[in-house]
C-alpha cells in the first residue's frame, strides 16, 4: 500500500475535522497541517495503475481546495501542479493516443480534457511563482529574461513549464495558445539555469522536448539535452529513453534508433519500493504501444 493510501483515513478525518471546527478556529490553523500532509503525499511506489488513477482524482480535488486557502504553501502548490500535469499525461492524453486509431472523435474529446487539465496545472504553478516573483509573466515574455529564481522554486518552474508544453502540444488549432510556447520555454530555462540536474534528468528531457519543438530549434542541441537526461537518470528511468525516441528519433524518421531506445525503456527495472515504480510502469506501457505502432508512425 502506498504512503498516500495508508494516510487516506487521516486525510479524510482531517478534512472532516476542518469542516467541524471551521466556525470556532482561524482557518489557517486548520488548513495548514492538512496542506503539509497533502504536500507530503506521493504514489511513486504504487504499481497498480488503475488504483493510482482512482486515488489521484480524490487527492487532486482535495489538494486544490486546500491550496485555495493556503496559496503560499510552496510544497502543496508543487504537488497540485505536478498532480494535474501527470494525470493529464498518464491517464488522459496517453489514452487519447491509444484511442485515435478506432475512435477519432473520442480521442479528440480526451485531448480537449487533457488540455484543460494541463492548463490547471500550469495556472497553479504560475500563480504560486507570481506570488514570489511579481514580474514573472513580464519576464517570461522577454527574449532573454533577467529573472533568477531560487532553487526551492525549481520544482514549480519545472511543472509549470511541463504543463504549459503539454497544453501547447494539444492546442495546434489555437494559435493564441501556441504563441505562448516561447514563454513556456523561458520558464523551463529559469529552472535549468538554477538546477540543470533537477529530477535526475526530467528537466533535461523537458529542455530537449522544447528544443525539438520550438521554431528554429536545433536537433543537435535537443539530442544533447536528451543524452544529458539519460546520463543523469543512469539507466533507472524508462521515461528518458522514451523521450529521446519521441523527441529525436521519430521526427528524424530513424526507425532503428526509435526501436532501440524503446527496447531500452522496456528493459529498465527498478528496485522494490523505488519512487520511479509508477512512472517507469507508465513509460514502459507507452514504449510498448509505440513499438506496436511503429508501422503507422514511419
What tags apply to this protein structure?
298 residues; mainly alpha; globular; disordered N terminus
Describe the structure.
Helix 3 (27-39) packs across helix 5 (74-99), helix 5 (74-99) packs antiparallel against helix 6 and helix 6 (104-132) packs antiparallel against helix 8 (154-169). This protein has helices spanning 3-6, 8-21, 27-39, 49-69, 74-99, 104-132, 136-140, 154-169, 175-178, 181-194, 202-213, 219-233, 238-252, 255-267, 277-292, 294-297. The chain has 298 residues and is mainly alpha-helical. Mean pLDDT is 88; it is low at 1-26. The longest helix is centred in the middle third of the chain and has 29 residues, at 104-132.
The major pleated sheet works out as: none
- Principal-axis shape equals globular
The number of distinct β-strands equals 0
Question: What number is the mean pLDDT?
Answer: 88
Instruction: Give the distance, in angstroms, between the N- and C-terminal Cα atoms.
Output: 41 Å
Task: Please state the CA-atom Rg, rounded to the nearest Å.
Answer: 19 Å
Which quaternary structure do these chains form?
Answer: single chain
What proportion strand?
Answer: under 5%
List low-pLDDT spans: 1-26
How would you summarize this macromolecular structure in one to three sentences?
The protein is mainly α and 298 residues long.
Topology of helices and strands:
Elements: H1 3-6, H2 8-21, H3 27-39, H4 49-69, H5 74-99, H6 104-132, H7 136-140, H8 154-169, H9 175-178, H10 181-194, H11 202-213, H12 219-233, H13 238-252, H14 255-267, H15 277-292, H16 294-297
Helix pairs in contact: 2-3, 3-4, 3-5, 4-5, 5-6, 5-8, 6-8, 8-10, 10-11, 11-12, 11-13, 12-13, 13-14, 14-15
Amino acid at each position: 500500500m502506498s504512503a498516500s493510501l495508508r494516510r487516506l483515513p487521516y486525510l479524510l478525518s482531517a478534512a472532516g475535522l476542518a469542516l467541524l471546527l471551521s466556525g470556532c478556529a482561524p482557518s489557517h490553523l486548520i488548513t495548514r497541517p492538512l496542506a503539509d500532509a497533502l504536500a507530503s503525499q506521493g504514489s511513486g511506489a504504487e504499481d497498480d495503475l488503475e488504483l493510482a488513477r482512482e486515488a489521484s482524482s480524490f487527492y487532486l480535488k482535495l489538494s486544490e481546495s486546500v491550496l485555495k486557502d493556503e496559496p503560499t504553501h510552496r510544497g502543496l502548490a508543487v504537488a497540485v501542479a505536478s498532480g494535474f500535469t501527470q494525470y493529464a499525461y498518464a491517464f488522459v492524453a496517453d489514452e487519447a493516443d491509444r484511442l485515435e486509431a478506432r475512435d477519432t472523435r473520442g480521442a479528440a474529446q480526451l485531448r480537449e480534457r487533457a488540455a484543460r487539465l494541463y492548463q490547471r496545472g500550469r495556472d497553479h504553478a504560475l500563480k504560486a511563482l507570481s506570488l514570489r516573483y511579481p514580474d514573472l509573466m513580464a519576464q517570461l515574455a522577454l527574449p532573454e529574461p533577467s529573472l533568477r529564481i531560487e532553487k526551492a522554486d525549481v520544482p514549480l518552474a519545472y511543472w509549470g513549464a511541463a504543463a504549459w508544453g503539454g497544453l501547447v502540444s494539444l492546442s495546434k488549432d489555437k494559435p493564441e495558445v501556441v504563441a505562448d510556447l516561447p514563454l513556456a520555454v523561458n520558464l523551463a530555462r529559469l529552472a535549468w539555469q538554477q538546477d540543470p540536474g533537477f529530477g535526475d534528468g526530467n528537466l533535461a528531457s523537458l529542455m530537449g522536448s522544447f528544443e525539438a519543438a520550438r521554431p528554429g530549434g536545433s536537433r543537435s542541441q535537443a539530442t544533447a539535452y536528451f543524452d544529458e537526461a539519460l546520463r543523469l537518470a543512469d539507466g533507472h528511468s524508462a521515461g528518458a529513453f522514451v523521450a529521446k525516441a519521441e523527441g529525436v528519433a521519430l521526427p528524424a524518421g530513424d526507425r532503428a534508433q526509435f526501436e532501440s531506445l524503446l527496447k531500452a525503456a522496456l528493459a529498465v527495472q527498478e528496485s522494490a519500493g523505488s519512487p520511479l515504480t509508477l512512472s517507469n510502469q507508465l513509460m514502459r506501457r507507452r514504449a510498448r504501444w509505440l513499438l506496436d505502432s511503429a508501422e503507422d508512425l514511419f
